[in-house]
Design goal:
six-stranded parallel beta sheet, 329 residues, 2 domains, 11 strands, Rossmann fold
Amino acid sequence: MNKKICIVYTHHKLGDLIWQLPYIKAISDHYKTNIDLVVRKKTQAQNILKDLNHINKIFYNEFRKGIYYWIDVFKLTKFFKKEKYEIIYILDKVNKPAIAAKFAKIKNIIGPGLGNQKKWLTTSKYLDENDQTLNYSEQSRKLLKINSINVNNIYPEIQINVERLKNNNSDLLIKGKKISFGVDSFEDYKMWYEENFIELAELLKERGLCDYIYLICGPDKSYIADKIIKKSKKNYFINCSSKDLEGVILALKNSNFYVGNNSGPLNLSAALGIKTFGLIANDPASELKYSKINPITPEEYKDNTWNRNREGMKKLKTNLVFNQIMNLL
C-alpha cells in the first residue's frame, strides 16, 4: 500500500514555489505515489498546479504570525490527523508545520532542520547551519540528497490544460504573432524602465517578431502597463494587469517568447516551456541556474554585487537586450 505523504511549503511568492517543483516531483517519484501539498493561498497553486498528475490535493494555509501562531499550529495539527499522513516533508525552515506534525504524532517528519526546526523532526538527517547561505532551491536539493532521494530533473516544469483557461479570456486569443513582456516585480529595484520596454518593442516589431505584445503585471502595478501604452501611443500592447493567474498563463502559452523582470511570471514562463529571457542587473543571475531562463545582464555586470536601487537597471541597455534575444532565438 502506498504511503500517504504531505509536502508543506510556507513561502508566499509564486516564484519561490515554482523553484520547489522539481523536489516535489522527486519525492512523489521516490515513493511511487501522488502527494498532497500545503501552501499559501497567495501562490494560487490550486489553479496553476491542478493539472500535475503527481499532485493529489492542494490545501491552503496562511502560516500567520503573532497571536495567530498557535491557532494555526492547532489547525494544522487537526488537519494532519484528519488526513492520516504517514510522512510530512517540509521544504523550508519554518517551525510551525513541524510542531503541528509532532503534535499530530506523525511518525516521519522530514525538513531542512535549520534553527529550532530540528527539535521537531523525527530524523537525524538534516542540513548544517552553514547551509543557511544556500538559496531555497539548493537547500531542498541537499535535503533530498541526504535522504537518498534522486532528483531526475532539476528544472521546474508545469503542465497546463490550456482549454480550461479560454472561457473567461477570449480577449487574449487575438490572431497574429504574440510575445509577452513582464513589466513589474514584487521588488521595484528589479524593474526595467518603461521607456526601455517601449524601445525594445519597436525593435522587435521592426524585425517582424511580433504583431502584439502582452504586458504582464499585477493589478497593483497596472500603472506601469498604462504608462507604456500611453507613452508609446501604440495599439499593439495588450494590458493584462486585470487578468488573474489563469489569464496570465493563457497569455504566456500564446506567446512565442517572454522578456521580463526577475519576478514570479518570469519563473512561471520558463516552467511552462516558453522561451524566456530574464532582465537582471540588480540581483544575482546565478540564482537562475536551476531554470531554463536565459539571463540578460549588463556588460559590466558582477553576479556578487547587489544593488537595491532601480537606477541600476539603466545599465541594461535596450540594444544589448535586443541583440542577446536575437542571438538566442
